[in-house]
Amino acid sequence: MSKELQNQVAIVTGGSRGYGMGMAEALVNAGAKVWITGRNEERLMETAAKIGARGFVADAADGEAWDRLMETVLADSKRLDILVNNAGEGVNIAPTREVSDAVIERSIASNLTGALLGCRRAAAIMVEQQGGLIVNIGSVCARHAWAEWGIYSAAKAGLLQFTRSLLIEMRPHGVRVTSILPSWGQTEFTEAAGLEARDTKVLEQCISPDDMGNLLVDIASRPAHLVTEEVTLWPTVQPMTQL
């Protein structure tokens, strides 16, 4: 088995299921030492044991949790090569007039603030070591509008623009920054967002956690002097009228 990321150190937030688990497992299989985070300790540790990663219980929207995570990783490995900001949630996809203030605040915290907190800390580490890769997992909602997705889309649009700016900021220091913008996926996001489940045959043709893992490893394995700015990933089964 190819080990193109042998001995690299990676963090994947929201790594206990879905895209996060797929990406973390792919990094492990490529030879990286991987830390995954999540809020559900039992599920997190079960996943970590299953894929060969290390689990760290943390809420990505908690700055103090980020500090503890970074301290732990650096104490263990002395460096951080890859940060994947994957943690996020639909919270409640509904008409804006029906959404509470608490839902708005939670959506922004989960889908934007958490990634910014992680990037701030990773940027300092990677500038000092003069190298690294930050990958922010966004959504096609950052570019395309659907009714009732406005709050989630606003958070993801903010993350996309931040990532673009961070890339320009970090390039002189040898640090690469990438956005991956997936659409329909084979994850629990649909249920968590309060949406009706799609037809099973359609779901099988949507983006899988393995698809995301393969894409991430491909991006991370490219020569350090090359950066992938943005990747938008669509399943061909998704109706084109929604683009």
What does it look like?
- The protein is an alpha/beta fold and 243 residues long.
- The protein has a single domain (9-242), classed as Rossmann fold, CATH 3.40.50.
- Helices cover 45% and strands 15% of the residues.
- It has eight helices and seven strands.
- The protein has helices at 18-29, 41-51, 63-77, 101-129, 150-170, 189-192, 200-203, 209-221; strands at residues 9-12, 33-38, 54-57, 82-85, 132-137, 175-182, 230-233.
- Strands 3-2-1-4-5-6-7 form a seven-stranded parallel β-sheet, with helices on both faces.
- The chain starts with 8 loop residues before the first strand and ends in a 10-residue tail after the last strand.
In DSSP terms, counting alpha (H) and pi (I) runs of 4 or more, how many helices? 8
Main beta sheet: 7 strands, parallel
From the spread of the alpha carbons, the general shape counts as: globular
- Mean of residue pLDDT values: 91
Runs with pLDDT <50, length 5+? none
* Structural domain tally: 1
CATH fold node name: Rossmann fold
Given helix and strand content, the structural type is alpha/beta
Q: Give the name of the CATH architecture.
A: 3-Layer(aba) Sandwich
Output the strand order for the largest sheet: 3-2-1-4-5-6-7
What is the radius of gyration?
17 Å
Q: State which percent range the strand residues make up.
A: 5-15%
CATH superfamily: NAD(P)-binding Rossmann-like Domain
How far apart are the first and last residues' alpha carbons, in Å? 38 Å
